[in-house]
């Protein structure tokens, strides 16, 4: 028991040091811009398909599930407005972040982990490259910028899914659907929901990089790092979401 | 040439490219290196022989600055490595080559990109044509020019070792540190790698420290051998001198 608590405290301290080192290296001269763009392509663009499909399905499913309840209250006409707010504010950002935690987090954890155990990180250092800047700063930056973009795409696609869901059992014109969606959404819904995804992305990036970069115990450790990267990142997404809701509430944006 | 001082340590002279004095390193309670002394002279191939876990890899990682020693002096190419800045360390590293035990080829890059990586980092001003020429030359040296656009995962163990050797040599280093260059290879490939190390060493006039416990490779490449046991310099001499040694620990190694 005490051993576990001690380990958690030590790990928290190590992540904090890693976090501080990240900012130290981020603001140091000599940015690896080309590598960051490459990572944006691999981590962002390559996740687009998955995010788009899940976004569409979420939009469709939430609409189908919500309809019977609204019909009970005679409020079927509110369906587009209601689903747009719940999708854009909460469901899509969290689900997209969880997908990214799974796909991107495990990828980074495993990649850096295997680089660590096969001495590729040492080889990079010997080749006159700061491996932290080249591998960690670029990946964390790329995930931080790509997750919000993916969320924006997923938001839009989920609303298309919602349109299909509304029309499966009822009938609503394209124009009317979008008019109702736009009327229901305000900047107070969109801006906080996008803002929190930067934090989601940063957290996924920093935790996955930390886990990969500090991998030990050979190939067994690589699997453990990838797994821990996904589990901790996913948990942190929920914790950050809780904090974001409290802040939005305090600022009276809800 | 190196000279012995009164306290038994070796000091560098003009021909010395690496000099270690009283080097100590421990991990927790486990002391890996105990007051280790060593000199490598220009053009010399020095083999460090020892059992697994005796501190050989830690030693060469200390030399190249990947591990910081607890105490002692490391001088590489007349430059004291303690308290050295990152820029100076990079300059020294550009004159050193390091062949990793696991080859350490970047999995996500092609052979060409692997070879270009140290060039683009250490010689940023180099023209594209010059980079291409050096990559082709390095691959020709190791007999694998056709692998230029392949990924490391498409290569056999021996080919990967050759590519790693080509990457190590691409900056034309003055000193090469080999960390178990023939481990995991079949005897024929291991022999080819040993021959390649000798051939390229002569071609580029390099000095080398080779960590190995492959006795065939040791016999081929060693001009001087240092026997490392429990982090201490146990015995030194030529291959023949150590082979004839009456010391039990040394005998066991050579008989096996």
Question: How is this structure best described in words?
Answer:
The complex is a heterodimer of chains A (254) and B (256). Chain A is mainly α. Chain A is 86% helix and 0% strand. Chain A contains 9 helices and no strands. Chain A has helices at residues 2-26, 33-44, 48-72, 79-117, 120-126, 131-169, 174-184, 187-213, 218-250. The longest helix of chain A is centred in the middle third of the chain and has 39 residues, at 79-117. Chain B folds into 2 domains: 2-95 and 174-255, P-loop containing nucleotide triphosphate hydrolases (Rossmann fold, 3-Layer(aba) Sandwich), CATH 3.40.50.300; 107-172, no CATH class. In chain B, helix 3 packs across helix 4 (128-141), helix 4 (128-141) crosses helix 5 and helix 6 (187-204) runs parallel beside helix 7 (215-221). Chain B is globular and about 55 Å long. Chain B starts with a strand and ends with a helix. The chains are: A mainly alpha (254), B alpha/beta (256). At the A-B interface, helix 4 and helix 5 of A face helix 2 and helix 3 of B.
Topology (SSEs and partners):
The complex is a heterodimer of chains A (254) and B (256).
Chain A: H1 2-26, H2 33-44, H3 48-72, H4 79-117, H5 120-126, H6 131-169, H7 174-184, H8 187-213, H9 218-250
Chain B: E1 2-4, E2 10-12, E3 16-27, E4 30-41, E5 45-49, H1 56-63, E6 71-76, E7 79-80, H2 86-93, E8 96-99, H3 111-122, H4 128-141, H5 157-169, E9 175-179, H6 187-204, E10 207-212, H7 215-221, E11 224-229, E12 232-237, H8 239-243, H9 248-255
Parallel strand pairs in B: 5-10, 5-11, 8-9, 9-10
Antiparallel strand pairs in B: 1-2, 3-4, 3-6, 6-7, 11-12
């Amino acid at each position: 028991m005490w051993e576990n608590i001690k380990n958690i405290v030590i790990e928290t301290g190590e992540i904090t040091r890693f976090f501080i080192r990240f900012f130290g290296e981020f603001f140091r001269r000599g940015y690896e811009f080309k590598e960051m763009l490459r990572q944006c392509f691999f981590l962002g663009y390559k996740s687009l398909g998955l995010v788009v499909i899940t976004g569409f399905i979420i939009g469709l499913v939430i609409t189908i599930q919500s309809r019977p309840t609204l019909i009970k209250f005679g409020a079927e006409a509110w369906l587009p407005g209601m689903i747009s707010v719940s999708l854009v504010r909460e469901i899509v950002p969290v689900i997209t972040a969880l997908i990214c935690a799974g796909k991107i987090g495990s990828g980074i954890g495993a990649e850096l982990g295997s680089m660590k155990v096969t001495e590729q990180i040492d080889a990079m250092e010997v080749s006159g490259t700061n491996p932290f800047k080249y591998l960690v700063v670029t990946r964390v930056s790329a995930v931080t910028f790509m997750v919000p973009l993916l969320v924006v795409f997923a938001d839009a696609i989920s609303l298309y899914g919602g349109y299909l869901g509304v029309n499966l059992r009822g009938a609503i014109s394209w124009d009317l659907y979008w008019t109702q969606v736009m009327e229901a959404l305000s900047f107070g819904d969109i801006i906080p929901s996008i803002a929190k995804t930067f934090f989601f992305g940063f957290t996924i990036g920093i935790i996955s990089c930390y886990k990969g970069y500090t991998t030990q115990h050979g190939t067994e450790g690589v699997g453990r790092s990838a797994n821990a990267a996904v589990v901790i990142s996913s948990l942190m997404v929920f914790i950050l979401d809780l904090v974001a809701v409290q802040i939005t509430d305090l600022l009276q944006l809800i | 040439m190196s000279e012995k001082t009164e306290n038994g340590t070796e000091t560098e002279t003009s021909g010395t490219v690496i000099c270690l004095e009283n080097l100590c390193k421990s991990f927790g309670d486990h002391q890996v290196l105990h007051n280790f002394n060593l000199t490598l002279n220009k053009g010399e191939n020095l083999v460090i022989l020892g059992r697994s876990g005796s501190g050989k890899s830690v030693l060469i990682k200390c030399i190249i600055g990947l591990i910081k020693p607890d105490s002692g002096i490391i001088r590489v190419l007349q430059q004291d490595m303690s308290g050295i800045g990152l820029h100076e360390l990079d300059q020294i590293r550009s004159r050193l080559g390091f062949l990793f035990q696991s080859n350490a080829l970047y999995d996500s890059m092609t052979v060409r990109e692997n070879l270009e990586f140290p060039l683009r980092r250490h010689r940023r001003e180099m023209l594209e044509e010059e980079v291409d020429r050096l990559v082709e030359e390095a691959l020709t040296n190791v007999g694998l020019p056709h692998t230029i656009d392949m990924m490391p995962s498409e290569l056999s163990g021996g080919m990967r070792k050759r590519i790693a050797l080509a990457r190590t040599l691409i900056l034309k280093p003055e000193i090469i540190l080999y960390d178990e260059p023939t481990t995991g290879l079949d005897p024929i490939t291991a022999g080819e790698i040993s021959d390649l190390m000798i051939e390229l060493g002569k071609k580029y006039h390099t000095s080398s420290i080779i960590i190995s416990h492959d006795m065939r490779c040791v016999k081929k490449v060693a001009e001087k051998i240092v026997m490392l046991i429990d982090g201490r310099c146990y015995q030194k001499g030529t291959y023949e001198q150590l082979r004839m040694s009456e010391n039990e620990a040394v005998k066991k190694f050579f008989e096996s």
